[in-house]
Design a protein that fits this description.
With 295 residues, the chain is mostly beta strands. Helices cover 3% and strands 30% of the residues.
Length: 295
């Protein structure tokens, strides 16, 4: 199972400086909460302001600096403990708290566990609600019903690790408006894609298909270099038009053309070279030229 905190520690290996909130003090040890990549993280902190007679207290807004998320140093004080800090919180016997605090100059409601990790936060001014799972998994279970996520705007998913979507039956991605619809359907039998316009762009692509079929009205291809290797090629068409500056063909054995009529038009010279040449006609053979040289 992927540990989100371990991934964040690996990602944030460079130095950082950001605001933090003192959430726990025990046995001369200090823990602060910082926000990082949309998560609430509680890390150990050491005060670098002891010479200024500053002693951190619960609820202080401080400025911390560090090189990783295992330990940071308090290098400044933004706001010291609010006088209403204790009176505006409810604490359970286990140490979990539901409290009202000041964040960015306005009041927020939050729920923290016994270690000071943020579990839920509501910001009435910014109209935002956040749910955190600082350690362990976060599960939404509907044992006899659906799970619906409704948003007036966007729904965004971001993961430090793998995003794994699984279904026992099928999965569907669909975009619909009044005129057009695009959809992608996944099932155990295969994947189907339906859209008005499909654009694929890649610096390199490897495609391995045992059997394929293309059906369409037109096909246009523009490439700088094309190479085709096959044991057998069959082409059927009502008309084939080819244009090229030069054509070079190398055939090891037989080159045969079967047609009812054949016409070759050459503007300049026509050369035929072989060890032996046989021309066989059931009727006439006509050779017409201003000058004919034999031998």
């Amino acid at each position: 199972m992927i540990n989100l905190l371990e991934i964040q520690n690996n990602l944030m290996s460079q130095s950082y400086t950001k605001p933090a909130l003192v959430t726990r003090i025990k046995d001369e040890k200090i823990w602060v909460r910082i926000d990082h990549v949309g998560s609430s993280l509680v890390i150990e902190a050491k005060s670098a302001l002891m010479q200024n007679n500053y002693r951190p207290e619960l609820g202080d807004d401080v400025l911390v600096s560090g090189e990783h998320l295992q330990l940071c140093y308090i290098i400044g004080v933004i706001n010291q403990k609010n006088q209403d800090f204790k009176s505006s919180q409810i604490e359970s016997k286990s140490g979990a708290k539901a409290k009202s605090s000041i964040n960015d100059g306005h009041e927020c409601l939050s729920i923290e566990d016994e270690n000071g990790y943020m579990l839920f936060e509501y910001d009435a001014v910014n109209k935002t609600s956040k749910i955190y799972s600082p350690k362990g998994d976060l599960s939404f279970n509907a044992l006899d019903g659906d799970i619906l996520l409704n948003s007036a705007n966007n729904i965004k998913c971001h993961s430090m690790g793998v995003i794994d979507l699984q279904s026992n039956t099928a999965a569907q991605i669909r975009v619909t408006n009044n005129d057009n619809q695009s959809s992608m359907n996944f099932s155990s039998q295969g994947v189907s894609l339906s859209t008005e316009h499909l654009a694929i762009k890649s610096a390199q692509a490897d495609i391995e298909i045992q059997s394929s079929r293309f059906t369409g009205k037109t096909l246009s291809t523009v490439v700088e270099h094309s190479k085709l290797m096959a044991k057998k090629i069959e082409t059927q068409a009502d008309r084939i038009l080819e244009k090229a500056k030069n054509i070079y063909r190398t055939i090891e054995q037989l080159h045969q053309t079967k047609t009812k009529r054949m016409r070759t038009i050459v503007e300049n010279d026509f050369q035929l070279k072989s060890q032996s040449t046989t021309i066989h006609a059931k009727k006439n053979v006509n050779i017409d030229g201003d000058k004919i040289n034999l031998g």
